[in-house]
UniProtKB/TrEMBL annotation, chains A, B:
The gene is proA. It comes from Limobrevibacterium gyesilva. PROSITE patterns: PROA. This is Gamma-glutamyl phosphate reductase. One of its GO terms (biological process) is L-proline biosynthetic process. Pathway: Amino-acid biosynthesis; L-proline biosynthesis; L-glutamate 5-semialdehyde from L-glutamate: step 2/2. GO terms for molecular function: glutamate-5-semialdehyde dehydrogenase activity; NADP binding.
Length: 423, 423
C-alpha cells in the first residue's frame, strides 16, 4: 500500500488493524452474544429512525440539486418503514443458524492425530457498494453473524445516511458488549478510501463490491485483495425436445419476465429444432403478452416471421430488460456449446422430461447453478434457503452462486495429538 | 490484459482459451479415464527418461556457466531415479480418490426444489514456480486429477527440463485420449509470460506461486487473478504450565530441528513462567545438542544466562534455520496475544495436559492449523492424508493450510425441480 500525505491510508491501516482485533473478539463470542449484538443493533436502528431519515434527507437534497433520476432517488430514499425493514433484517439474521458452529470434516490419521476442519471467520471484509443505504446494514449484519469485521464504503450519494446508520448500529453493538471497531465507515466520501481499500493486501481479507458493472470491473481490475465479485448473469433456458410444453411455457415466461432486471433472469432462450415449430410461437405469444421483445436467429425467424433479427453480439448481451434473445439448437450438445461460448457461468436451465438429457446438460455446462425443470430466477440466496444473501458470486474461487452466511466464513484446522512428533 | 507487440499476450490468450476447453473436456471424462491419462503420462516420463536427463544437462551447463550455488544445482539436477520418482508421483495421484466425486451438500426446499452442491474443477490454473523441475510434473498431475487445465511457468534455469517433461506428459495424455491443451508451457523464458499470466483476469482462474518469498510477493502484488499463495510460516510452540515435561521436550526438538527449513518448523518457543525454570534448561540442552542457536527474551535469559538476547524483530523473523526465538509468557492469554501479534496465521501448537487450556488456546489463535500436543511439522499435505500437496496456503480465502486435490476444486449447484416458477 503506498503512503499518501492526506491520511487516507493511515486511516485505513488503523481501521483495518482495529477491525482485525474486533474480528478475533467476535469469533470468540458465543453465538448467543453475537445474536444479542445484532438484536441490539436492530433496536438502535428503530430508536434512531427519525434521526436516520433526517440524515437521509440531507443526502436527498444534495441528490436533487445534482439532478439525479427518479429511479436512483427511490433507491436512495429512506422512510421510517424502510429503516424498520433494515432493523428487521438484522433480527432475521440473528435468528439464522450459526455459520461458525460447523465441523466440515473430521478424521484420524494412522498415527493417532485427529484432524478437524472447522468453520472460521474470514476476518476483515471490505464492502464497496452504491446507492441503497440498506446494503450497509444488511452487510454489517451478515458479516458480524459470521464473526467478521467489516469496513463499509457506500456511495457518495448516501454518505450522511450511511454515517447515521453506522452510528446506530455501533451504538447497539457497544451496548451489547460487541467491539466498536467491528463495523467502520471512512470519514469522508473521498474516493481515495476506495483505492486504499483495494490496495490493503494483508489488512483486508476480502473485498465484496456490490453495484453496477463499472464498479465491479474497477474493483476487480485494481484490487490487490481477493474479490468476491458479482459480475454478469447471462443466463439461458434451454427447451429440450422432450420438454413438457406447458411447463416450458410457464418456465420461459417466469425466467424472463418475473423480474427482467435481476441477474438470474434468462437472457437467451434456446429451443430445440424438434419442438420449435410447435412450441416457439406459443412461448413468443406468452412473452409478448407480458411485454417482452425478441432478438432471434434466422431459424427462429423462419418459424415466427416477425421476430426482430439478432446480431451475434445480442447473444453476448445481458439485457436486464424485457428483451429475450432466441436461438434454435440441435440437441443437448448444441445447447451446451452455445452456453459455453456465450454464457457467463452464472445460471442455466434445461426443461425436459428426459433425465438422461438433463444429466448430460447439467454435466456439460460449467455454470455456478445448473437447473433442471425450474426457473433460472431461483438463483437467489433466499430461494436457496440461505436466509439472507450479500450477492451472487460469479468467480470460481471460494464461493459461487448466492453468497450467504456460510460463504462469509473460511475454515481452519484443529489437530489433536498425544505427543506425536514427525518422523 | 494489455496488448503487446511481441505476441506474449496473444500466446497466453490462445493458451488459456484452449486450456479452458481442455478443462471442460477433462471434467466430463470419467474418473477412470482421467487416471488412465495420468498413468500414461507416467509411462511416457519413464520412456523418455534419458531424453529428459539430457535436456536437464543443457540447463545444468547454463547454470554452471552462470556460477550458481551447489544447493540450487542439486534442486535443478535430474537423474533417471528422479525422473522415475516424478512418474511414480503421477501413478500415486492416479490412485487417490476422485476429488470431483463429492456431493458437498444436498437439501430440498419447501417448494420441492432439490439443491445439490457438488465438487467441480476450478478451470484454468496458472502455476508459477522456481527451480525444481519436478514441481511441474507434480502440479500437472494434481491439476489434471481435479479436472483442471494448467499453464506451467517454471524458472528460467529449468526451461529445457520443463519443456522436455511437458513433451513427455503431453504425449502420455494424448495417447490416453486426454486433451493436449490440458498442460501448457510458454514457448520461451521471457518474463513477459509471467506478467501476462498475472494479468489474465477471466482467462486464468487461479494462480499458484511456488517458490521463495520474493516470487510470492511479486505475484500477490501484481496479480489481477486470484492467488493461492504460500507466504510465511512463523510458527509457535507454546509449552503450557500443565505440559508433560518429556512430551514438551520431544515436541520442541522435533518442531524446530526435524527440518528447520520447512514452513511448518517452529520459529518461536513460548514457555509458561510456571514451568520455565525447571523445563527451559532441559529444552535448551536438547536443542543445543541438535545444533540449535537461540534468541531469547530477558525472562528466558534470567533462567538460562548464556542465551543470546533477542531483539523485538527476532520474534517477527521466520528463521528457516537452526535458530529458535524464546519468550517466557504468563498463561494462555499471554501466549495467544504473542501469537496474534507476531505470528503468520500458519501453524501454532500448545503442549498441555489441561484440555480447557488447550481449547482456550485453539479458539483464541487465528491460525490455519492449531495443534494440541504434537509437532508443528505435521502441517503437511502428506501428513494430513491428502496424498499429495501443491503447497501450503496462507491466505484466508478458498483454502487454508495444505493444498491437496480437494483444494484444487470448487463447487457448483445442481437444482432439480418439476416445473417450479418463482412467485
Amino acid at each position: 500500500m503506498h503512503v499518501d500525505s492526506d491520511g487516507t491510508t493511515d486511516w485505513l491501516r488503523s481501521a483495518a488493524v482495529s477491525a482485525r482485533a474486533a474480528s478475533v473478539a467476535l469469533a470468540r463470542m458465543p453465538e448467543a452474544a453475537r445474536n444479542d449484538a445484532l438484536r441490539a443493533a436492530a433496536r438502535a436502528l428503530r430508536a434512531r429512525a427519525a434521526e436516520i431519515v433526517q440524515a437521509n434527507a440531507a443526502d436527498l437534497v444534495a441528490f436533487d440539486a445534482a439532478g439525479g433520476t427518479a429511479a436512483f432517488r427511490d433507491r436512495l430514499a429512506l422512510t421510517p418503514a424502510r429503516v424498520d425493514a433494515m432493523a428487521q433484517g438484522l433480527d432475521d439474521i440473528a435468528a439464522l443458524p450459526d455459520p461458525l458452529a460447523r465441523t466440515l470434516a473430521d478424521w484420524t490419521r494412522p498415527n493417532g492425530l485427529r484432524i478437524r476442519r472447522i468453520a472460521a471467520p474470514i476476518g476483515v471484509i471490505g464492502m464497496i457498494y452504491e446507492s441503497r443505504p440498506n446494503v450497509g446494514a444488511d452487510a454489517a449484519g451478515l458479516c458480524l453473524k459470521a464473526g467478521n469485521a467489516v469496513i463499509l464504503r457506500g456511495g457518495s450519494d448516501s454518505f450522511h445516511s450511511a454515517r447515521s446508520i453506522h452510528a446506530a448500529v455501533t451504538e447497539g453493538l457497544c451496548a451489547a458488549g460487541a467491539p466498536e471497531a467491528a463495523v467502520q465507515v471512512p470519514p469522508s466520501t473521498d474516493r481515495a478510501y476506495v483505492a486504499a481499500m483495494l490496495g490493503a493486501a494483508g489488512l483486508i481479507d476480502l473485498i465484496i463490491p456490490r453495484g453496477g458493472k463499472s464498479l465491479v470491473r474497477r474493483v476487480q481490475a485494481e484490487a490487490q485483495v481477493p474479490v468476491l465479485a458479482h459480475a454478469e448473469g447471462l443466463c439461458h433456458t434451454y427447451v429440450h425436445a422432450q420438454a413438457d410444453p406447458d411447463m416450458a411455457r410457464r418456465i420461459a415466461a417466469n425466467a424472463k419476465m418475473r423480474r427482467p432486471g435481476v441477474c438470474g433472469a434468462t437472457e437467451t432462450l434456446l429451443i430445440d429444432a424438434a419442438v420449435a415449430p410447435a412450441l416457439l410461437p406459443l412461448i413468443v405469444a406468452d412473452l409478448r403478452a407480458l411485454g417482452c421483445d425478441f432478438r432471434a436467429d434466422a431459424r427462429a425467424r423462419a418459424i415466427v416471421a416477425d421476430l426482430r433479427a439478432a446480431g451475434d453480439a445480442d447473444f453476448d448481451t445481458e439485457w436486464l430488460d424485457a428483451i429475450l434473445s432466441v436461438a434454435v439448437v440441435d440437441g443437448v450438445d448444441s445447447a451446451i456449446a452455445h452456453i459455453l461460448r456465450h454464457g457467463s457461468e452464472h445460471t442455466d436451465a434445461i426443461v425436459t422430461e428426459d433425465e438422461a438429457a438433463a444429466m448430460q446438460f447439467l454435466r456439460g455446462i460449467d455454470s455456478a447453478v445448473g437447473i433442471w425443470n425450474a426457473s433460472t430466477q431461483f438463483c437467489d440466496g433466499g430461494e436457496f434457503g440461505f436466509g439472507a444473501e450479500i450477492g451472487i458470486a460469479t468467480g470460481r474461487i471460494h464461493a459461487r452462486g448466492p453468497v450467504g452466511l456460510e460463504q462469509l466464513t473460511t475454515f481452519r484446522y484443529v489437530v489433536t495429538g498425544n505427543g506425536q512428533v514427525r518422523p
